[in-house]
Design goal:
Blueprint lengths: L14 H15 L1 H7 L4 H10 L2 H11 L9 H27 L2 H8 L2 H13 L5 H24 L1 H27 L5 H22 L10 H21 L5 H8 L1 H14 L5 H23 L2
């Protein structure tokens, strides 16, 4: 799951930018696998994902910071803190869902925030959806219905895991709305560092409140989670995002659930039936159509 949505104008891309975009999504797609392997509890794993890379993010933010800039108003800092709280709730809900449902479901539902943003854009603009937007909404609803029904057939806990991942998408929607209000005063690494710094204590508090073990016995899954998701995944996407249209980004975004599905199959024996594949395909199509709609509005 990405935590920052850079919407700069598309710049000239070279093959390395595409490799970076693909590599960033591949690294993020491995995140649910590392969460499942961690022995610290799913929310605690999210805390370590945010906490461990903070020194590196601080260094990158300091290098990117402009030498001279206007004083940042207090309301902007409050927006960033609130956005950090919402991202912590997003990540906590998603990690709880990862622990209970299939990795493919978790990855698809965890990215549902982009569809909610599209629906909100229609409401804010007070207009009816275009054909591509209507197709995305119908595809998402049908796909979600199929996957939720299949999860209920497997186990009630699996359905609850799906619902937690959908809740994560809702929190992500509000997180992005707040960041859009604050991003004009900060560069990408600065904003990522500030929101991560605000999120980490909230994640720790939630983990303690749930009674999860905080200190792990085995560190490598958490180090891999922090490195892949918060450094490599976010870093490569921040580097590459401005060079591609929303359509290309949407296509490459679909590698995340594909990697999660493959990891679930290889590591945990999670298999897909025809209905599962249909539901996932419909949600993947909805995500792609949502990105296509964004591309058409540029």
């Amino acid at each position: 799951m990405t935590s920052i949505d850079d919407r700069r104008d598309v710049a000239r891309a070279n093959p390395w930018h595409f490799v970076a975009l693909l590599g960033g999504n591949f690294a993020l797609g491995l995140g649910p696998w590392f969460v499942r392997l961690a022995d610290s509890g799913p929310v605690s794993a999210g805390f370590w994902r945010l906490f461990l890379p903070l020194p590196l993010l601080a260094l990158l933010a300091a290098r990117q910071r402009a030498a001279v800039r206007p004083v940042t108003p207090m309301v902007t800092w409050l927006l960033i803190i609130l956005a950090g709280v919402l991202f912590a709730l997003d990540l906590a809900s998603w990690h709880i869902g990862i622990a209970q449902t299939r990795l493919g479901n978790a990855s698809l539902f965890g990215n549902s925030g982009s569809l909610i943003l599209m629906a909100w854009g229609l409401i804010a603009a007070r207009r009816l959806p275009k054909p591509v937007e209507l197709a995305a909404i119908i595809s998402a609803v049908c796909g979600a219905g199929i996957l939720l029904g299949r999860s209920l057939e497997i186990d009630r806990a699996t359905l609850i895991g799906d619902l937690f991942c959908i809740l994560a998408g809702i929190f992500y929607f509000f997180y992005i709305l707040l960041l859009q209000s604050a991003r004009g005063r900060f560069e990408s690494w600065e904003l990522l560092f500030a929101s991560t710094l605000a999120s980490a204590p909230v994640m720790l508090g939630i983990a303690i409140g749930l009674g999860e073990p905080i200190w792990p016995h085995v560190w490598w899954p958490l180090i891999a989670l922090a490195f892949c998701s918060q450094v490599v995944g976010q870093g490569l996407i921040v580097f590459a995002l401005r060079h591609f249209s929303a359509l290309i980004i949407g296509v490459v975004l679909l590698t995340q659930p594909a990697i999660s599905i493959l990891a679930g199959w290889l590591a945990f024996g999670e298999t897909l039936g025809p209905l599962d594949a249909l539901g996932m395909a419909l949600i993947a199509a909805a995500l792609l159509l949502g990105r296509l709609s964004e591309s058409g509005e540029r």
